[in-house]
């Protein structure tokens, strides 16, 4: 016969839970959906509450499917049926090496502006739902504007401690973001959490502490990197503000760190927590797909550029005055247009300075993070934005204004990965869910090519690469693109794949995600990310063991960063994932039809 139906309760035809192993031509082995309730199969199966259709790459409690030839060429008889398992979870060790942990971002306002953990019963219920779905952990913003709101060095971690304790109680791991930016003004920002008021007060007398565009408009989302080393904050520099905050976090959360609850510290390095300039912001009128504007016209960065230009023998060079406005297209500007300023010696000098300032900013703060968490069993991480619009235009204008000096003949992301490697930090990238075909043609978007370039660069620099979706998605197409990017060459049956993402964080926990249909698809997505293995609490079993954080390696010299700008072809990428998530309703109907056909 071409199928086996075996109860996990120890016998055939169990009423509570059946596992379906199908070989031959009855089912496509690439499709392994989880089905939650199939009723009335004509006198054969009564009230089957849960059926899992599993193929060769799936976890097997009964048969090591990797010992069999590909489905379609072998069949298994009932005489070969093994005994039921005695352990609740068993793993195929080689397949487990393909396991990609899944984390879920918590709501932006889970801790209120008043530093209160509100609606704990609802959060507890949602966390338990995530855990039951096999989710590995959650990510949460730890807002500077909340914790240090009362005054310099007046930290109040009490609400976050309550939240962390609940996460721990629910059996989830935690990724903590050191969020030094304002919440509000970016896509998806549902709440407003400003920078600490005492910092904003300093900005009233010295507005140049904020990023500034050519027109002089201030952006209060994040302090300009021009004040990184200016002692303007009651005698402290901006870097010292961030360093002191992280040291206080470690001191006050040491029990959670030692218990293994907190595994990642993602260090916020700019707007939206990303290592970039605030070149595109809705609060200043930007709308997609505008090219954005350079943000280096505060007096501190202007002075630094003047010094750099003078040192290069060009005191006459100033900051760009021909790069357009937020919602321009590349071709409408002199800087980004055909044979534009970006191709000239002056333009190249500016773009090199602008992008290197950003990398140095990240490098300096991550060095402080490394000092703060030295010896802790945590990983550091930093996030880079997925600026996919105008990627297929010659000037890559939107990337350049954001600080990513990326062109066809120059890699703007591998230098960032090289910098991160010095701190043993994870490279976290966005827009994993996006496909070119879903974007506006006139914006010359290239999210797929961008992701391939960035991830390949990270792997070549031997850093761990993680990622997240940029926009909330609940459909199989978005999930399948994320699965493809997580394992570009698919499942390896011989152990660790050549390229595999370190982890994926889903944006974000919401009532919409937990709606019945959406959550069913999401649970399937989690199972596929886990390579169809059960949830695994032991990070070492899938090569994610975390040792004590070592001291950062020596600082890179400019030549090291410039060498990393050499463009390289991305690694091979499959056309589609081999762990496909299918639309639940369609798969359910198809599975029922095929089940009926077995017993005719």
TrEMBL record:
Secretion signal, residue range per the UniProt entry: none
Keyword tags: Carbohydrate metabolism, Glycosidase, Hydrolase, Polysaccharide degradation
Protein name: Beta-amylase
Catalytic reaction annotation: Hydrolysis of (1->4)-alpha-D-glucosidic linkages in polysaccharides so as to remove successive maltose units from the non-reducing ends of the chains
GO biological process assignments: starch catabolic process
SUPFAM superfamilies named among the record's database cross-references: (Trans)glycosidases (SSF51445)
Originating organism: Gossypium hirsutum
Iron found in the keyword field: no
E.C. number: 3.2.1.2
Pfam family name, one: Glyco_hydro_14
Family: Belongs to the glycosyl hydrolase 14 family.
Superkingdom as given in the UniProt entry: Eukaryota
Sequence positions that bind substrate: 141, 181, 189, 383, 388, 430, 469-470, 508
Active site: 274 (proton donor), 468 (proton acceptor)
Molecular function (Gene Ontology), one example: beta-amylase activity
